[in-house]
Amino acid sequence: xxxxxxxxxxxxxxxxVVVCGWSAxxxxxxxxxxxxxxVKDAPNDAGTGLIVEWQLSPDDRKDADPRVxxxxxxxxxxRPLKPENETPIKESKFAKVGEVNFQLAKYLxxxxxxxxxxxxxxxxxxxxxxxxxxxESTVAVQPELQYFDMRRAWYLVLLVVVGGAVVYFxxxxxxxxxxxxxxIAGLEAVEEAVGRATEMGRSCLFIPGILDINxxxxxxxITVMSRVAGLVAEYNxxxxxxxxxxxxMTTSRETVAAAxxxxxxxxxxxxDDIYYLTDEQFGYVAAVTGNMVRKKPAACFYMGAFFxxxxxxxxxxxxxxxxxxxGTAMPSQLPFFVAACDYTLIGEEFFAASAYxxxxxxxxxxxxxxxxxxxxxxxxxxxxxLLATVVAVMTDPPxxxxxxxxxxxxxxxxxxxxxx
Amino acid sequence: MKRTIPLIIASVTGFxxxxxFFIPYTRDWGDEVLEWFNILAAIAFILGGGNxxxxxxxxxxxxxxxxxYAAVTxxxxxxxxxxxxxxxxxxxxxxxxxxxxxxPYDEQGSGFWWIFEYVYYPLAATMFSLLAFFIASAAFxxxxxxxVEATILLSxxxxxxxxxxxxxxxxxxxxxxxxxxxxxxxxxxxxxNMNTAGMRAITxxxxxxxxxxxxxxxxxxxxxxxxTDDG
Amino acid sequence: MRAFLENLDRRWIFLLVLIAVxxxxxxxxxxxxxxxxxxxxxxxxxxDLDDGSRVLIALDYDPSSKGELEPMASAFTRQCALKKHxxxxxxxxxxxxxxxxxxxxxxxxxxxxxxxxxxxxxxxYQTGGxxxxxxxxSDLHGTFNVDANNEILKNIPMTQNLKNVRDMDLIxxxxxxxxxxxxxxxxxxxxxxxxxxxxxxxxxxxxxxAYIPRQLSGILGAIKAAAEYEYLLIQNYPELxxxxxxxxGLRRMGPQLVAHVLIIVLIIxxxxxxxxxxxxxxxx
Lengths: 420, 231, 284
Fold this sequence. Notes:
heterotrimer, A: alpha/beta, 6-stranded parallel beta sheet, 13 strands, B: mainly alpha, 7 helices
């Protein structure tokens, strides 16, 4: 009896040892390799990308718990393309170029170049770091250069249509056709403000935003500055322009000097009235508002890109009783200007300002072109919303309608380009 | 000539860079040009800084109104420059224990760090916090229920102002959590829907304005920003 | 009285704001928060990542907006550290360096096991604004050759195998303006499809809602959202309950509430004066 118990115990222990050993072996065993590797050129690039795709390892199951495969490692062999009639160049070795997580079967290698062709191999790696055998591509692939980024094809179409409309209307106006432009109260007020400053014998203050000259809002602000400076010169008032950037100071000086010259009063131009303060946002505001409180300008113009300083400037201007006109394309600052200034040019009005104030017909043509862009945008938004709503509401929408919505979403708004 | 050459440079550069957006091979050109601009702007600081010094010194020497402020500007400017460049208070790094200036100029405990921490930071924060005072005075003066639109705007402002604090939760806490009439839920709805729709419309207008202005600049229709041929 | 209110000197209003803001600070008033859907979305974006994921934390703000944004930056840092994520700090603002250092101080003081170079790295400040963001999409080592301590990135374990920002699992941006969230969305998250969340000032938040949810997973707008985030963080990680530094946003909601109520009262008073004046034939 005792002997049979001992034998049973021994058998049990042996079984335990086998099970433990087996599980230890099975934990350390490499996972099954992935399969079906393909390599193709990445589209829409400058010949720097290749896409490697494969089929997941059979051990990489979505619901696996615990997970057997944790990642895939991708190795690459780069073979320089030999010039003809030369001895073959010795092949280099496979080297790791990247890895992707489990359940992913695609890798984009963006560090390739057109002077090489490439072979790839992919390995599945287990949680213990064991690698499967590698699956290797058989055909070497060379990346190709694309001359046009098809994902941006629709951008080009819209650019040509809207840009074309702007250019077309500029030409139309140049040929003598009259265009009707609605009155913009804020811009009508510019002359009134300069006139008031002249009557009161006080200066005008112009702030061209706090960004540098590479920002289009600063450029738009400086074009408005040119008109304001012209008026100031005409009325024999004075104009002060503190800037937040050195390059803006230089550009402003050129612009104002030109405006004074055009107004026939180059002698009245004073370079030192256009000066640089600091690049630092709040340091600039402190200096400008301090100056405002001391000098009490009668008219303040804020035209350009503004951030948190908008309300600080405009409220100080309000406190000293200045007539204030602001224009910006920073949507977040518009409410502050609207609350504290007499007139505010909202977004596109600000960009229209220089054309409007110039009274030059060919500049006004650009506004009409802009309207065409807005019209097209409006039509596209309404049509897109209607179509998407109809497809979403209908239980069984016509397939044509559905594919049209998909085309808009994936080709026009997405990255698929012209072709469905 | 003084106007024509810059205009040609601006026009050619502009159109080429527009083209690079569509051509993969040239996609990085814009970044390269932006780096050139940064170098240019950094060098231009000498021009601006020099001008600031010149005007401030003139103000002091002629005792023009506000010359005291100019004096403060110059003292602050020179002190910061000297302390930063001279690396005052910078401890030597362990790799070069004998070189007292080897540490970074802005490390904790250095003179420059001290200026930043105890002068610059409080000053900047003070200026920014002035917004709270100015918002209150602007709200008191400007928010009037003059007409239907202004009244709607005002009601929305009240909802958002309350909904952005615990007051919103407290005042409508008797309603279920997901009830749309709760002030916090209404605030979120207003911001996500009404506000987003308005912002999108303004943004589209701005984008078109930018495009039109850029085209005018590139085509040379608007040349006011490049001064005059004379002088 | 009406005449006094009609011509009220703005300095009286400034005094009221001062009292409204300072009283709750002195009385240490705090209020419970109910995290909004937006805040929960941002929280989940970090929390749902696998432990040890790569997170880029770009702190694009300066001391002037520190009061509003620092609680967000701190909460993001704490949450990422609790999730053991690998953190890459950087800033595009010249005055942002101390902001990054303050976030790193949290790791040093509260997470002593976090090691520089293996768990977090400070890429520091890089000049160039949006050009830096664009370049990061293709080449990290070309953009930041060295870290903030002048150590070559190729020698740092966390960065030696990183190619570009596309290797990140998430981008967290705390921003007070440009360059900031808008540029990260336009040049990184949209073209390269990288999940991005942001913490922004109350003023800039409305302009960024348009990017949610496709281009931007979620945003924390203003101190209110920061306070809600801290509340949610403490609820999920009770070890932060006793840490007063983890409640900075919650602490700031007291002054916020009283100031908002004051503004509402001021607007109401302004309108009463306006309507009584109109009835009597004078306008304000």
